[in-house]
Write a structure and sequence with these properties.
The chain is an all-alpha fold and 73 residues long. 66% of the residues lie in helices and 0% in strands. It contains six helices and no strands. The chain is globular and about 35 Å long.
């Protein structure tokens, strides 16, 4: 399966579970508010980043980490 920024978070974590711990601090709102089921089933990576208004610098870190991990395999 080819993953990209439009891939659902659940698919990304299924194929690259190590990314969950790296991304969890950025998506803490979903975990704290017990909305993680929405995060995993409905949102793409880019959708979650836009929804949370994550600063551009952090957004770039997440995107770089995603591509670094996905392209390594």
């Amino acid at each position: 399966m080819k993953l990209n920024l439009e891939s659902k978070i659940s698919d990304i974590y299924k194929h690259y579970p190590q990314l969950e711990e790296k991304f969890k601090p950025y998506f803490k709102y979903f975990y704290e508010e017990k909305l993680d089921s929405i995060l995993f089933r409905k949102l793409s990576l880019i959708g979650a980043l836009k929804l949370l208004n994550i600063p551009e610098e952090d957004r770039e870190k997440i995107i770089q980490e995603f591509y670094k991990t996905v392209n390594k395999h």
